[in-house]
Design brief:
Number of domains of chain A: 3
Oligomer: homodimer
InterPro entries (chains A, B): 6-hairpin_glycosidase_sf, Beta-AFase-like, Beta-AFase-like_GH127_cat
Radius of gyration of chain A: 24 Å
Protein name (chains A, B): Non-reducing end beta-L-arabinofuranosidase-like GH127 catalytic domain-containing protein
Distance between the termini of chain A: 54 Å
Structural class of chain A: alpha+beta
Pfam families (chains A, B): Beta-AFase-like_GH127_cat (PF07944)
Shape of chain A: globular
Chain lengths: 604, 604
Amino acid sequence: MGSTYSAPVQPAPRVTEELDKPILRPCERPHPQETFDQTSIASDSFYGKIRAIYGQRVLKTQLEQLRKQGSYEAFKLGWHPKFDIEKLQGAKCTISSPPTLLWDSDVGKWIEAACYFLSTADGKGLPHASEFVSAIDELIAMMAKAQQSDGYLGTYFTVVDKAGRLKNLRDMHEMYNCGHLLEAALAHYRWSEDRKFLNIMIRYVDLLMKTFGPGENQRHGYPGHPELELAILRLYSLTRDPRHYAFGRYLVAARSQREPSLGGKPFFVWEAEQRKDTFFHASMASIDDGRYHQWHAPLHDQDTILGHSVRALYLVTAASDLDGTLLNDANRLWNDCVDNKMYVTGGIGSVPDIEGFSEFPHFLPNSHDEGGCYAETCASIACMMICERLLSQKLSGKARDVMERCLLNNVLGGASLDGKRFYYANRLATCGNEVADRSEWFEVCCCPPNLSRTMGLLGGYMWSVKTKSQTISLDIYLYMSGERTVKLPSGEIATVEMSSEMPWYGKTTLRLQAPVGYEWIVQIPEPEYAVIFNVSPPSLITSTDVEGYHSLFLPARSTISVTFDMPVRLLAPHPATHQDTLAIARGPIIYAAESYDNTKMEGE
Amino acid sequence: MGSTYSAPVQPAPRVTEELDKPILRPCERPHPQETFDQTSIASDSFYGKIRAIYGQRVLKTQLEQLRKQGSYEAFKLGWHPKFDIEKLQGAKCTISSPPTLLWDSDVGKWIEAACYFLSTADGKGLPHASEFVSAIDELIAMMAKAQQSDGYLGTYFTVVDKAGRLKNLRDMHEMYNCGHLLEAALAHYRWSEDRKFLNIMIRYVDLLMKTFGPGENQRHGYPGHPELELAILRLYSLTRDPRHYAFGRYLVAARSQREPSLGGKPFFVWEAEQRKDTFFHASMASIDDGRYHQWHAPLHDQDTILGHSVRALYLVTAASDLDGTLLNDANRLWNDCVDNKMYVTGGIGSVPDIEGFSEFPHFLPNSHDEGGCYAETCASIACMMICERLLSQKLSGKARDVMERCLLNNVLGGASLDGKRFYYANRLATCGNEVADRSEWFEVCCCPPNLSRTMGLLGGYMWSVKTKSQTISLDIYLYMSGERTVKLPSGEIATVEMSSEMPWYGKTTLRLQAPVGYEWIVQIPEPEYAVIFNVSPPSLITSTDVEGYHSLFLPARSTISVTFDMPVRLLAPHPATHQDTLAIARGPIIYAAESYDNTKMEGE
């Protein structure tokens, strides 16, 4: 149940120092995000070319933006005008915390992204690699200095408001920042094998684990914006320190608990009373009753996904990395999101004022004039993260199809091809004089660097491999062109090479090479949109035990080809959307018809 | 059918000059709005005291605001900085036309309101009466000068853009302004028996009837914001000129017709092409496909009410004043609005960006953070106008209950008790740092003067009387305190006096006096919220043939009392609203619980 905080007995504890050996996760298969760097995406392929835009242009653009924004310099702990929250807040809706509170996470996401590109074979030829490397070193050096004696690391509450430290977990994003910096540190360690950044973050995490938790002398708190949960569970897959797993599980399970020691109140209510809400005043019903921050009920009792989309989906991402009930809850809420609250484009979030979910299933207006539309890039990225974790826990054609739909239709469009402009919201239509163009940057700019780290990690979304004695299991998630090596227990190497014409043509060739005596079990996806699906030689197809997949048993050295048709489809919206529209799709791609490029309709 | 434009054969035409005799409408009963001035509301009663606020303060405030705004002086046809639309429009969403385009209607509504108060017995003691009278005279004198040789009357297109006259009916509100000035002229004629203002407006209407219509040499147009339809049907009930009825009917029936002479296009599409939409660009799906302006389908084919709430409900108001199919269509769309798209407060419109209706039945979020909420004062006033017309066509307890609900919960709150501040939107809850207070005025200020004319006309919403030979039929709409005289065919006088403790207590006494030989048929409403309903003497109750009403047959001189209980009710929202709330009601009044006056909920 969501209400027990005890650390799991299994797996056996290991000391944090042993970081050399290969690690397995609770679900006993390697987390693709931990093996992405064994994959090299073909540079001349569709995904390779897009990835190159990020490696060659977007990362550079974003580094310049971070410098311009002030978040880069902020770790020097100097004063910045934007720290003057009261002034900034004046005009703002009180639901959004001041942009400077998110600066540390912007930097963290950029470092994480840069490290991914630096550590993948196809990223070796980065034009600005040396500039990135020295920026990363400088930032880490600044952080080492910025870290307080007790381990705390955060620019705003070190420079501006020491007394306010960790007093407003609901709004102030300290744990969120810590999470992104921790993921950056994990990526940095994986690339550099240097522990200095990781040590900084483990020290900070130790402070948070000491301060917050179920213990008598701990504050029973959790963040208003989940992210530390995701990061610490990734840390656990490296350290296998059960305290890391337990804390990640606690932050998810403690949510919405009525703590006797807090007068039976939910943490955010108690916390707001403690600080007398002098600065932030929760002036929305959905904040007061917890829906916005997903503490209106324990995850186990939530039958529909509500509130701020990214917060909700990050919480579900963490739960999908956990065990037992929480994993089931993640499955239920993800299915509700996909079945009832996702746009045909994979866009998520139809209530602009909360950047979030409607109470209404199938309330998916295309624009503000129809009642709302948001479809934040980060929300679809979060959905991809959930898909990847669900797939690594249990293969599913549905999770694969959704991951591909989000990636191609609500994520890749988040950046322009020149790598200089970005979408935050990906509305299906715009209203009045709303801006329909991409922007160079945003005051709150979570999306652009989130895009970069997702592209950096793309190899991790492609497939996953598990080895057991002489059997190599290969699960294919996305049809892409690339190759990867597999380290076998014997120390030998197996290689997989996939060359695909997706997303344009359903033609893919797979070449497998393993030492004599090994065999492959390959799970080949049959996408929802595929018609006339063939694997040759056909005799290889076995009756499938996974919906949307075919299991193939193959000898050590095999070459197979997969072909399927992708006829143009006209997709009609669910009747409950009350929409009189059709979407044009071919394969995984939804096509957009810009009104500016077309003559106006005449109401017929 | 909604597609035939022919003028009705009945009733027999009368020449416009004969304005002296008592008039009957097509539905063969006096339009309450044409007999309101026979009613005097008791000044010491609930409604009398509120009405006094308008007569003594609101009208004065609004006259000052009109002078400050510039709309008063505008009829002198001088230049005003606010006429510089391009400059004004820059920052605005293109769906809202420039405020100055509505100035003429603001003045019209104020004159109409002032005339109502001047012509009712309880309005005789107006403290500022002489100032109002000279303002009215000055405005009418200015209009007489401002009227062009061909009859056109409109400040903006006379001063700024002569060439643009009547070229953009969709956005520029010329017909809307004409409608409100015409209703003002009717009120002025009724009060002063002076035809000068009415003649001005009839000249303008003649120009419009010549320019627009089904004829070969006419433009097949209709306004983007209905109102002229309502006004001209009221004009018809005075003139009985069938051309007036036919034009009112045409403007409703022509809507959405695909005109062969316009290349089979709807008028607004053709019109936008003619002017190449250089200034206004319809950049919303709901404008492009006609939903916003209600031309997406003929009224007869609309199975749910859509688009801008006030425009939609004004169109339905006009249809509810018409015959046959259009009256049925009005009934169907009004029932859809009330059953599926109205807040418990009688508020209407849940999509802020279009000030309008959702495609979703029961999509009634309380605030922006829940997905939207608008509930414009004018929309509930429009609903009251529909109720009053439906009641005058066919008595109905439902229409009566809805009219009372709108008046008490989403209309009266539109002005502060000091008569100086007003609501435009009446949201059930506010979000973030939205303004929850009333404002002194609005750039587009349709609501405040609309409130005044509604309060001025309040006696017309109270009851209606019809006389046939020796029988006087009295239909009671609202329980209020007041009296009225009834002119009998014999020239004699009957009087009705109602004294009621509503809305606080279900206790009402009715005193009827008619000459010997007359008898009364009185329709007494039993409100939806009434429990233990008694009429004494009880023997008088007859089996009711109208839902929500009791028919009483009474001798010439009768006194009866009506009593009912109004226990406190907890109203649960329709399940499809997905809302976890309760509304507290007693009788017709919905009670509001201000979060600022109450401790925060704790998500329990």
